[in-house]
Amino acid sequence: MESEELLGGVNPNGGEQKEEKKQSPLVSLEKDLAFYADSIKEVAVEIMVEGISATPIFIAHQHEVKLGEMILNREELNTNWTIQASTLEEFIEKGIIKPEKKEHFLKNYKTPEDFMCVFVIVPEGANFIYYPYSKK
């Protein structure tokens, strides 16, 4: 699913060229996701077992986001990324995923017992990634 589809045509690359050989924020995200994996999996299982949703989605961000419920605060944990827990249903309700795109999303959704579905929000845009709970 393309970020333009989710953000209503917002350019995910931003407007201006600001390439200053900065390290990609995804490097720190991968480090944090590995650190958070057990906690995120526990929340994902809880969301599914309690019947809240069969499709948990986690939001990774470095700013304030009004989506989902905060489960891991970067300031409290001295990490780079805050993680919030949400569901496919909330993403549809808030218009991030259009109802007509639901089936497309579900076809691409990976097994929630093995992968965390993460909606990564950066200043340039946002997109979904799937990160394995355990990297062997």
Structure, explained:
This is DUF2294 family protein. The chain is α+β, with helices and mostly antiparallel strands. The chain has one domain. It is built from five helices and five strands. The chain is globular and about 35 Å long. It starts with a helix and ends with a strand. The model is unreliable at 1-21 (pLDDT under 50).
Draw up the topology in text:
Blueprint: H1 3-7, H2 25-49, E1 56-61, E2 69-72, H3 74-77, E3 82-87, H4 88-93, H5 102-108, E4 115-122, E5 125-132
Parallel strand pairs: 1-4
Antiparallel strand pairs: 1-3, 2-3, 4-5
At a glance:
This protein has 136 residues and is an alpha+beta fold. It has helices spanning 3-7, 25-49, 74-77, 88-93, 102-108, and strands at 56-61, 69-72, 82-87, 115-122, 125-132.
Properties at a glance:
disordered N terminus; single chain; about 140 residues; globular; DUF2294 family protein; alpha+beta; about 35% helix
Mean pLDDT: 85
* Number of helical elements: 5
Q: H/E element string?
A: HHEEHEHHEE
The quaternary structure here is single chain
As a percent range, the share of strand residues is 15-25%
Q: CA-to-CA gap between the ends?
A: 27 Å
Task: Tell me the radius of gyration.
Answer: 15 Å
Please outline the major beta sheet.
5 strands, mixed
Please state how the strands of the largest beta sheet are arranged side by side: 2-3-1-4-5
Tally of domains: 1
Range of helix content? 25-40%
Q: Provide the structure class.
A: alpha+beta
> What's the number of extended β-strand segments?
5
Region (Disordered): 1-24
Protein name: DUF2294 family protein
Organism: Pedobacter ureilyticus
